[in-house]
Amino acid sequence: MRETTGGSSTALRSILLLVVPAALLGAALAWALAAPSPVLSEAPVRALAGCAGATVIGLGLLQRLHRRIAPPWRHLAVTAGIWAALEFVLLACESAQVVGVRVTGLRAGEFGDYLTHTSAGQVGIAILIGVTVVAGYCAVAYRRPDRATVDLVLMIAAVAIELRPITGHMSQEPLGAVFAAVHVLAAAVWFGLLLALALVLRSRGEWAQALPRYSAWALPAVGAVVVSGVINALIKLGGLAPLVDTGYGRIVLAKTVLVTGLMALGWWWRRSWVPIAGDHRMSAESSLRRAAFEVIVIAVVFGLAATLAVTA
Question: How far is CA 69 from CA 59, 63, 74, 130, in A?
């Protein structure tokens, strides 16, 4: 099969930008399902920040799938910079919600009080500092890659992406923080690593080497997402009836339907796409198209999950 040309590859790769509206669509869908239960207004920003953080994790892990690919420092620096900006906006949204004003009406003193006198603000500051350090380190590493290690990026990014979930409502339950950490990290590997493949891989040979390894990682990652998600939902809901009777339950149900569909798609990919690509019998363009479709659907799930985290 013919390899992807530079122009068609770039045009197809631009489809990955649909991850942004897909995540926002997931948040909007969750808002509709939650009514009349209250939902905090920062849910869309949470969704985008989650996607950015997962992408940093995925880009950092990429070399483990294909050792001949150097860490994509430029992609990492840009994505971490976007993540840092989103975390700052998220902090402002949370502060405005507590104060009871719009973000545009938030005063500097009120913002400062939120950051210094609330546990959520302090957690947010820690996340923002960590993500900013990652962005700065990756920017320097882009200029001097011989003196940089992606392991440091992964370590800080993993802590940053876990901090908010493990200090949320699940932290009050036995082993709740553990399940929350497993859930968010497994989801980051599932989504972020596939998005990293779509962003970085250029040739049929690179897909042939990396995709089967990704598939082997994705299976336990999806399993961890499902198991930890079911446990978290059962703890929060306390039964099956609230799946229909409460806004939180309806979002869980929608998320379950989408994840089930993605699991079925993954099963089909493992029987069709993965072995064909692994045998060098599929073009890079075809692999990119399939990866783009899956990450866009997963982004909708990220939007649902982000709204779920701030739904009463």
Answer: 11, 6, 13, 25
